[in-house]
Amino acid sequence: MKKLLLTASLLASPAFAEGELKIYHWFEYIPQELVDKFQAETGITVTIDTYDSNESMLAALKAGKLGEYDVAVPGDYMVEIMGTEGLLDTFAPEDLANFANIDPKWVDVPFDPGRKSSIPYQWGSTGFSVNRDVYSGDIGSLSILFDPPAELQGKINVLDSQGEVLALGSFFLGIPQCSQDRAQLQALNDMLLNAKQHWASFGSDTAKDVLVSGDAAAGMIYNGFSAKARAEGANVEYAAPKEGYVVWMDNVVLLKDAPNRDNALKFMNFLLDPENSAAVTNYAAYSSGVTGVEAFLLDEIKNSPENNPPADQKGFFIQACDEETQKLYDAIWTNLKK
Amino acid sequence: MAGGDDSWRPLARPLLIPIWVVIGVFSLLPVLLMAVYSFLTKEFRGGVEWDFTLAAYDQFFVTRGLFGDEPAQIEWTYITIFWRSIWQALICTALCLLIGFPTAWFIATRPAQSRGIWLFLITIPYWVNLLIRTVSLKFLIRDNGPLNEGLMAIGLITEPLPLVNTNLAVQLGLFYSYLPFMVLPIYAAVERYNFALSEAAADLYASRWTTLREIVLPVVKPGMIAGCILVFVPALGAFLAPDLLGGAKTFMIGSLIDEQFKGSQGNWPFGAAASMILMTLVLIVLVFYARAASREGAA
Amino acid sequence: MKGVRHYPGFLSITVLCLTILYAPLIVIMVYSFNGSTSITQWGGLSLRWYGEVFTGPEASRFGQAAWNSITIALMASTAATIIATAAALAMVKGGRFRGRSASFALINLPLMVPEIVTAVASLIFFTTIGLTTGYGTILIAHITFCIPFAYLPLAARLEGIEATYEQAARDLYATRAQAFRLILLPLLAPGVASGWLLAFIISLDDFIITNFVKGAGMETLPTAIFGSVKQGIKPNIMAISTLMLAASVLFVTAAYLINRKGRQTP
Fold this sequence. Notes:
The structure holds 3 protein chains of 3 kinds. By secondary structure, chain A is an alpha/beta fold. Chain A is built from 13 helices and 13 strands. In chain A, strand 1, helix 2 (32-42) and strand 2 form a beta-alpha-beta unit. The radius of gyration of chain A is 21 Å and the shape is globular. By secondary structure, chain C is mainly α. The chains are: A alpha/beta, B mainly alpha, C mainly alpha.
């Protein structure tokens, strides 16, 4: 038995500490060909582990997985949280030869001013899509989700994600994010409880599948997911709600205690190359934060309606609330799913 | 029955050493750690501070309104969630018993050489991962899935049966997930049942069903109890299958706890406290079972 | 003879039971031969998804994951069955001794702890004692939670074996070891087999605990499959499932044939 365990632990420990890179990444968010290209160019062996939400990634890192991975790919607000939690390492712009490729508007971002720990990966939006075979009316408002027309009642899928649901709900009611105002929060709580009776399901990973399969006729969804649903044959239209939509950006961060810091930087630099960044965009159907990608983008991605919302629409980042306020939002969410 | 053999007595404790070590270190110790965690102060977004408090249990049982300034009242939110999970697990257990017992009996009464085949027929689906099985069940019963299309094609129904995202689908999924855990222990019990007892009862003009109730059930009861425990407990904590089939509109115990550790709420002490309460419930059920079993044994 | 064993309706219930168990799998098998990329439309018979399983971009990942899963399940269920057999002998045949009820509670502890709690508790525990998560920690966790699953059918079987058999053997001057090996063990064998099988399936199927105690880059089949399946079932997953099913049918048939051959030439 002892011998068995010993062998097992030997198997588990990396035999070659150099020439490795351990990525903690979202599921199906990087094309295998790109990973292969990186391995071929650098000779570094890449291992990818996946997670399904920013929060579960944070939880895993805080529960002791910090030091096992070199890079992770948190969303905007999560970069800020990880920074405050001390989970990130910093680098200098000179460490990345391609640093200048970052689109200037994505350098001084509020969640990591000056890009000291992160680089842009992809960005996109969260709104909703409607199956046009089922409903052909106006879809320019979030009321489709929160006060749906009869045709869509009982056929709506909502992301199983507190941040996005509460943010879109707040936009719909016109109240600020992280509000502490009693009347506003009560209104948000009541509105969501009332809207829930028209919802068929909560699901984030399944958001695309339910639209394609017809289980849902409308659904809160990420723009790239909606584009994929369309490509798979669903007659869905990604809406541009007048109240606003959620904008997000995923970022590659350098983790604290990264076992292969140098390789992590090589990887980040690799991703800042326009051709490589475009490969991710073509795969995930979102938008790159690197300049010069246009030449490498597929036309259907570059010109997709999902990636080119009307210029007069407003998108907002989800804000990370402070502890006291977050408690109120947690309570509303629990109340909604009780 | 078997306890009278003294030759095993001196060996009892040495034989138990491995199990004490393995479970003591890798199950009991982590659970104790968990119990300690439930009394710690939560750190914002996951993690704990080592200051002891009852805050987690307070959050579970007491509400002071959304803003915390109303008079204290009983918090029904979490009790509702728990009750729903318990109820579903109970129905699932009953369903598994209802279907599992006849199945196990049927298999155990086959000729010895074909029993193995029947048993494997029951277990083969479990070689395919639970998630795949659940998702394919969903695929089968969805509005435009093969079941509804088939039924409509033969004209049995005109509108698709709304199955997905219903409680029925959840029940079906739970039943589907845990059935063999009911069949296998009952099978083991029936297999060693001495059918001469039934024959004797039949000779005394007892009907088949009387024999089943009066003679068979008491003997195979340990197997049934084992089966019920094996089904009830995992069904109580299950949430992946219910979420997939039921639409995740409501928290289950499992998803509530998961949310505290992996979700946005990041409240480890509360997750630990909810786990402790869940374990207490399971413990009560087990004690109840154990007492019923020992009463049966004494009779 | 048939009379007392036969109950009307039990056959129909068994058939119903098997229908429910197999219907989704049969649908999956059929659709795994679908030539279309979409799972909702039929695009003619094709083997393309089977090709995908072995040569597709995910082939090596799934191959490694399957290997990890099977080796872990074999080792964990075997270790758990050995430990559980020893414990069952002590608990059932050891008479009354101090610590018996405590032992009973301890054996069943992994059952009382919800999977999700075991998962988090184990991870915290492993990190606290400084054990790097990986193959070893998965194996330890699996052995632990497999023990009660192996124990229950074993103990149920053992309780039904009357001491008189063994006693008779001892009366005929068999040593304790002989009585155990020649009398008790063969009688216990079905319990051991059913306990081992249950443990094996449990280990092979576990997702929640494994997901927490696996280290960087370590995957078992359920964790590898999880990511693919949770967005909705894909044709290549259907092909993998069909292959898994086919493998288990082969396994069963082989076991049956070997068993029969063993009986013919004793």
